[in-house]
Amino acid sequence: MLNTSFTRLVGCEVPIQLAGMPMIASPQLAAAVSNAGGLGMVGGARLTPEALGQLLDSVSDLTARPFGVNFIMQFHENPACVEVAAAKARVVEFFYAAPRADLVNLAHRGGALVSWQVGSRDEAVAAEQAGCDFIIAQGVEAGGHVRGRIGLLPLLGEVLDAVTCPVVAAGGIGTARAFAAVLAAGAAGARLGTRFVAAAESGAHPQYVEKLLAASAADTVYTEAFSVMWPNAPHRVLRSCVAAAEAVEDEVVGHLTVFGQTIPLLRFSVPAPSRATSGHIEAMAMYAGESVSAVTRVEPAADIVREMVGGAEALLRSSTV
Questions:
Q1: Measured distance CA(215)–CA(193) in Å, rounded
Q2: pTM of whole model > 0.85?
Q3: What pLDDT was estimated at residue 74?
Q4: How would you class 161 by CB atoms within 10 Å of its CB: exposed for 0-12, middle for 13-18, buried for 19 or more?
Q5: Which letter, b or e, does each residue of 174-211 get, where b requires 16 or more Cβ atoms within 10 Å of its Cβ?
Q6: CB of 189 within 8 A of CB of 168?
Q7: Residue 319: pLDDT above 80?
Q8: What pLDDT does residue 76 have?
Q9: Span(s) in the chain for CATH 3.20.20.70
Q10: Which of the four CATH numbers 1.10.8.420, 3.30.70.100, 3.30.450.20, 3.20.20.70 does domain 5-201+296-318 have?
Q11: Integer angstrom CA distances of residue 161 from 76, 119, 167, 279
């Protein structure tokens, strides 16, 4: 079994981390990844402390293993949410802003490990100086909102040379070969999003999953198209959803029902289509990284973890990464 500084720090069995995709990384998916030996994650964006507590309790009901929660800084407004997360999750993660020592310290006081997802060498250094226990280095190949501006391997090299804490690689990792490659390059683990969107336990809308199954890396685009609610934030989506959103005439393309409330979704708004979404699904933000070529079937999250780990172990043993 792969044993790295990340697994020893977090208490996982394998160095695979699920991306904390709001509404997509369901409690069932997070728990399934954790139960398979990885680090399951859920998204904490725009939740009240009470709602976040309920979400994390739902994960705890399904797994006794480590899991974490991700906060997107543009939608983080209440320090009490960090306190709730630190009390209930093993890892508290922050994304898309300059690292802040006050938030790191707040999560540490609650007993959690803290990570920050970064897109540059300078941001990685700042995260370590702020007290983070590990760092996620995100390359431009990643799906969803993208902090990185260069490819993962060049970024990983820069970050590994600059910090001493464990570094998890993110962006374009969907196969055992890619997983083995980042481990061989010095990463302590790999963070996966797109591959798990098509997991059986995913909260993604079935039409979203169908689009992923039919897509390849060339079908993704790095864009700022879906900027309602979050301007000036580049992201990678399927090219087809941009065209579909441009073709829709309605300014409200659908609705999202969450915690008993139904929220209208404006055209080019940020939320990805989940099972709680209705409307013009094809015209919503279908986030996808360049690893989408590896998404070929719907399968349990545990099978994805086993395939990735077994394949990477074989490749690293044979030194034919």
A1: 15
A2: yes
A3: 86
A4: exposed
A5: bbbebbbbbbeeebbbbbbbbbbbbbebbbbbeebbeb
A6: yes
A7: no
A8: 74
A9: 5-201+296-318
A10: 3.20.20.70
A11: 31, 15, 11, 47
- Cβ atoms of 22 and 45 within 8 Å: the answer is yes
Element (H, E) at 168: strand 167-170
Question: How does strand 261-266 pair with strand 252-258?
Answer: antiparallel
**CB atoms near residue 317 (< 10 Å):** 9
Token pair in block for residue 20: 């904390």
Q: Which residue has the tokens 């349990």?
A: 300
Tell me the mean pLDDT in the region 153-160: 98
- Cα separations (Å) of 183 from 32, 57, 289, 317? 23, 32, 19, 12
Does the pLDDT value for residue 232 go beyond 70?
Answer: yes
Span 190-211, average pLDDT? 98
Among 199, 185, 197, CA closest to 156: 185
| Sequence-distant (≥ 6) Cβ neighbours of residue 78 within 8 angstroms | 48, 49
Gap between the Cα atoms of 116 and 99, Å rounded: 7
Q: pLDDT tens for residues 59-68? A: 999 999 999 9
The tens digit of pLDDT for each residue in 266-313 reads: 999 999 999 999 999 999 999 999 999 999 999 999 999 999 999 999
Backbone angles phi, psi at 39, to 5 degrees: -110, 105
Q: How far, in Å, are 106, 148, 149, 193 from residue 153 at the CA level? A: 32, 11, 12, 18
The predicted-structure confidence for 103-133, as pLDDT tens digits, reads as follows 999 999 999 999 999 999 999 999 999 999 9
**Weakest mean pLDDT among 117-131, 155-169, 174-188, 252-266:** 252-266
Residue 321 has pLDDT above 70, yes or no: no
Q: Tokens 């060498």 belong to which residue?
A: 121
